[in-house]
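Lab meeting prep.
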Amino acid sequence: MSDAKSYELFINGKWRAGGSRATLPVINPATEKVFDSVASATVSDLDEALASAER
């Protein structure tokens, strides 16, 4: 997993960690190995993303 990347949330034009600071693994279905991780969004993160998208 040395080449794995970690992705943050893109909200209101900026990359940032999710409110919970937790991440979720992204698994390659062919190998069943983790190859990346993504930030886990909270309800607050989703509300903020929706509000910025509506502007």
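Slide two material, second protein:
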Amino acid sequence: MSNKIEPPRIPDPGQLMPQDVHTLASKDEFSRCLIEGALIEYQEATRVAFDKTIFKNITITESSLQRIELTDVVFDHCDLSNVDFSDAFIHRTEFRDCRLTGTDFTRARFQNVSITGCIGEFAVFRFANFKGASFERSSLASADYYQSTLKNLYFSECNLEQATLAGCKLKGVDLSDCEFTGLLVDLQDLEGCIISAEQAASFAGLLGLVIKN
């Protein structure tokens, strides 16, 4: 399914300029960069823009980067836990084996974004707009997608235990190979959602059904 997601357009890593980034200011712009092993902490900036950039083994902590713009970007083995990325614009970007625990993507716009092998427990995607995105082999327990727009959003082999999907239209969303015993959803939004026979029991309570063994 993720082959429907357009990958980042990034030059060969040898053509990228190594950058030692530790501080960020509002409206900073970075292009064709390789940012590796950096610790970025206690930063507050808005509308920082990264284009054609690879982040590798970096940590961003105790930081607010609202309205960040990410275009043709790869995050590889990065720790972005609890970072405020609210109102972000994220396009043709990959998150690979990253920590996204508690990361705030409220009202973010995701277009051609893949999140693979990540830990995103308690991540916040409230009111986000997804137009072509995939979550694969990731832990998203207690993640919050409240009232997000899910257009061409794909889940594959994810842990969605107690994730919030209330207010999300789930028609065409395939959860059949994901792991959960309970989701927070609205009954009226379940129409057209694709689930496995085993998962059907999780939704029986919403329908007022009692399953008898």
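Talking points for slide two:
The domain at 73-206 is CATH 2.160.20.80 (Pectate Lyase C-like).
The chain is about 0% helix and 30% strand.
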